[in-house]
Write a structure and sequence with these properties.
The protein has helices spanning 5-17, 20-31, 49-57, 72-86; strands at 89-92, 105-109, 115-120. By secondary structure, it is α+β, with helices and mostly antiparallel strands. It has two domains: 5-57; 72-120, no CATH class. It has a three-stranded antiparallel β-sheet with strand order 1-2-3, with helices on one face. The two termini are 38 Å apart. The mean pLDDT is 66.
Length: 134
């Protein structure tokens, strides 16, 4: 748990600094987008444009890999933040629950390691299907 105002301010500064480098890289990428064109500015583009543009440019491949909503590093950061703020630990429930996907079973425990909750988290979208990714 946060021990005081200074600890919370330090945490906010850490959260502010963490995405800075990635944000600068994304800004530079957008300045150079679209590749091999004469455009001097990126101009306004919608969210749907970037995946299509990246596929066309060859930087990502659509087939063979489903889109992941939350990479493991993002989940780890989120769970670390929940530990700092609330004193709870979120970790994989290896072997404690039946799972349909490797990253889906998760548990939550308090400072004394008492299990408080168990839930399924599937960071791969299943579209309109029900029952998890298929």
């Amino acid at each position: 748990m946060a021990m005081g105002v200074e600890a919370v301010e330090e945490m906010f500064e850490t959260l502010r600094e963490a995405p800075w480098e990635a944000g600068n890289r994304a800004l530079e990428t957008s300045k150079n987008w679209p590749p091999n064109r004469d455009s001097k500015s990126p101009g306004p583009v919608g969210r749907a444009f970037w995946p299509r543009g990246c596929v066309k440019a060859g930087s990502i491949h659509r087939r063979g890999s489903p889109p992941v909503l939350l990479p493991r590093s993002v989940l780890d950061g989120l769970f670390s933040l929940s530990h700092r703020l609330f004193g709870i630990t979120v970790e994989a429930a290896d072997g404690q629950a039946p799972i349909w996907q490797r990253m889906s079973a998760t548990s939550c425990s308090d400072k004394q390691q008492n299990e408080r909750a168990g839930f399924y988290l599937t960071p791969i979208p299943s579209g309109n299907q029900t029952g998890g990714p298929g």
